[in-house]
Amino acid sequence: MKKEDYIVQFLLKEEAMLRKNGWLSHHVFETKLREFNGLANSHTHGLEENFGHLDFQMVLPIDPRITESLFTILAERVKAGEVFEEGKEKQIRAIQDE
Predict the structure, then answer these.
(1) Residues 73-86: what's their mean pLDDT?
(2) How far apart are CA 65 and CA 82, in angstroms?
(3) CA spacing 20 to 30 A to 91: which of 3, 46, 76, 80?
(4) Where are the alpha helices (DSSP H) in 22-60?
């Protein structure tokens, strides 16, 4: 597949995710640090435009699947009307009560 075709497919997939969920996330790796299990700049797009809430960003040396899970929990809470503000602590439960 040509690079241009890959980029077009990637952008179409992102557009579909934004339409479906109202948000999406990116995980950008620093090449030099990645070799040493380094930092990932994980962040969301679409929350501000679609839900009036600032997007989230986490820059941590952890697997992006973990930040993706946290973003999903946070985005669902934002969709339900919850507001997260700098300096105000909130508890995030990864496992839902049964």
Answers:
(1) 94
(2) 23
(3) 46
(4) 31-34, 47-51
